[in-house]
Design goal:
The protein is an all-beta fold. The chain has no helices and 28 strands.
Length: about 325
């Protein structure tokens, strides 16, 4: 029967539509070529335009999935407390944060998330340690970070999150973990930096890029206990916010500044970085969430704050022509 999956390359007929087709080789009589079926993933993904956010902003917190995401806080020219939910096509304004802030980060899902740190008016800058918890309807102030900072990496869930790096006016390499009620200081990052990207879980995460203050391509992975320096990204950048990915071996970073606003997208497979399709609109301070195969880039600065939303979608399977040499 015809395969129902999404393919990249030559249309495939008469193949099983489940994952058992991966790894198979077949002969295409129409082209006279042998074809191999391989895992798809981020390297063959593309960006497409989606619905505009209601309040243009940059350097905001974000959380969730491609069909159920959110952005909160940020800097639309002045700090904001606005929260918006995304359903995969449109944005809806919902209850505001308790504290106006920008350059904060987030973790979790649309129904249960947290945001922490940032800068709150008046800008001195005045870094904050405040943490707020979202229950799907409203925000509640909970226990603060041990160290107030902004522009850090953040990832995990509403009850098991990680915050690494950032700055309180000078860079820090502090790492804190969240257990749903309080923050605990744990092992520090290897490289002090801020405005970096983070993705993954409390036991398997990644922190990439950032400023020292010069832009760096450094990448570190987190195993739940400590950080390990690993392969650098291809292009040094900063002005990142949050990130998309599920583990220390599966992540996507995009946008930022090189120093002009960047459209670059890179995929991490746990060993190396691969440059993939660029964003349509180069920007920094993006609201980034989702997975490496289903990511969202919301708002950000070009340097003008924009309302653009783009979705990254990667094919399930790709078909490669076999060659000999």
């Amino acid at each position: 029967m015809a395969d129902s999956k999404t393919f990249s390359g030559f249309p495939v007929q008469n193949l099983s539509s489940d994952s058992t087709s991966v790894g198979q080789i077949y002969y295409n009589t129409g082209t006279g070529q042998f074809k191999a079926i391989k895992d798809g993933g981020a390297p063959i993904g593309t960006w497409a335009s989606s619905g505009a956010v209601n309040t243009a902003r940059g350097w905001m917190a974000s959380a969730g999935t491609q069909t159920a995401g959110m952005i909160m806080g940020g800097d639309p020219g002045a700090r904001t407390d606005k929260t918006e939910l995304y359903d995969g096509s449109t944005w809806t304004e919902v209850n505001d944060l308790n504290l106006i802030r920008g350059q904060n980060v987030g973790a979790g899902l649309q129904t249960a998330s947290i945001t922490f740190g940032g800068i709150s008016p008046p800008q001195s800058p005045s870094s904050i340690a405040n943490t707020e918890s979202w229950n799907g309807t409203s925000w509640t102030e909970v226990n603060d970070l041990n160290e107030g900072r902004y522009g850090m990496s953040g990832f995990g869930t509403a009850t098991a999150a990680v915050s690494g790096g950032g700055t309180d006016g000078t860079g820090v390499n502090s790492t804190e973990t969240w257990n749903g009620s309080s923050w605990t200081e744990v092992n520090e990052m290897n490289t002090t930096r801020w405005y970096l990207s983070g993705a993954g879980t409390q036991t398997s995460g990644i922190a990439a890029l950032g400023a020292t203050p010069s832009q760096v391509s450094n990448v570190e992975t987190w195993n739940g206990t400590s950080w390990t320096e690993t392969t650098n990204a291809n292009t040094a950048r900063d002005q990142m916010c949050d990130g998309a990915g599920v583990s220390d071996s599966n992540a996507l970073v995009y946008g930022g500044a090189t120093p002009p606003a960047s459209a670059l997208t890179e995929f991490w497979d746990g060993t190396s970085w691969t440059e993939v399709a660029d964003l349509a609109t180069a920007r920094k301070g993006i609201g980034a969430f989702g997975t490496s195969g289903a990511a969202v880039a919301a708002s950000g600065a070009t340097p003008t704050r924009v309302t653009n939303t783009e979705e990254f979608v990667a094919a399930d399977i790709q078909v490669k022509t076999l060659t000999t040499s």
